[in-house]
Amino acid sequence: VPDTTLRVLVIGVVGTIGGADRSQVASHPQAEIVGLCDVDTEALGQAAVDHPDAFTCADYREAFDRYGDRFDGVIVATPDHSHASIMTMALARGKHVYGQKPLVQQLEELEMLGRMAAAHPELVTQVGAQRIAHAPRRAAVDILRSGGLGKVIEVHVTYGNGALAGGHYFADGVLGDPIEPPAGFDYDLWLCGAAHEPCRPQMVRRQWRSWFKYGGGQIADWVVHLTDVLMYAFPELQHPMMVCTRTPSRDLSHFHADKVTSTLTYPVNSDKFANTTCNFYFYDSGMRPDRAQIGLGEGEWPSGIVTVVVCEGGTLVLGPEGPLEIWRGGQNTDGMAWPGLPA
Fold first, then answer.
1. Does 155 lie in the same domain as 76?
2. Alpha-carbon dihedral sign for residues 98, 103, 109, 115
3. What's the whole-number mean pLDDT along residues 61-68?
4. Do 67 and 142 fall into the same domain?
5. At 85, phi and psi to the nearest 5?
6. What CATH number has the domain bearing residue 89?
7. What is the pTM of this model?
8. Domain enclosing residue 155, as ranges
């Protein structure tokens, strides 16, 4: 192992993601948080308590222009709409990049970043899909790859608990009156090139995920995590050929809908699947499939957020960090006891 320390700039420093990323990086003996960047002075102050020697700034462009020689890599933990701009600059300046999911908000941005990464093979890039590191999720990948449950028939994913508004991540769909940005919050920098929109109560400090302009709703939040085991186990799952979404009527001019059921149909040319297509069914806001119809006996769901893979020889049920259940003939067994899993 080289006797070097990776110097890291964190852009987007608090919240569920920014704070967790800082903590994980700072815990590594060969990594050091040397810079903090956030449009919110309150957030910067909180993070600076943990990293008193780190430089601070509000504008990521200043971080690269003024302090670029002080860091080697960047963590991008900002709202979705700003990911591509920041990561593009990081790659252009020769910095390694850890970008939180979803990596981009628009498909064109993904193509742009792909070209940038290909032009800089010396740089390390990674997407923040960290839940795949949990042992039950890795075990699920191994079980699915092994074919021990038979061919895959369909996939069901449930997310959300029916209480998305009220100060949590997702707004209630009511467009509030314009307000002044919070004190110490640089709203123009937060927009990061997006078309100007008056600041509203639901936008900054969490509920931006609800907005079409800034976030991707639950699909871009939880579903990225909940489908990771399928994408790791079956790389032949590339792009859906059809998407069908149903939701109760509501004004969708600004916000993603909640109480959504969606079906994504993937073409599969593989002997690991029962058919030439595989449907992924998504259920929002606490809605769930009927247990009996997908091969599960009576009982409680392991969590409100769950991935269910229905196979010809059984059904795999997985919570975000576990537990991992294997159902056969209406009986549940501990998936972590599956024969042949790595110790």
1. no
2. positive
3. 98
4. no
5. -60, -45
6. 3.40.50.720
7. 0.91
8. 132-165+214-337
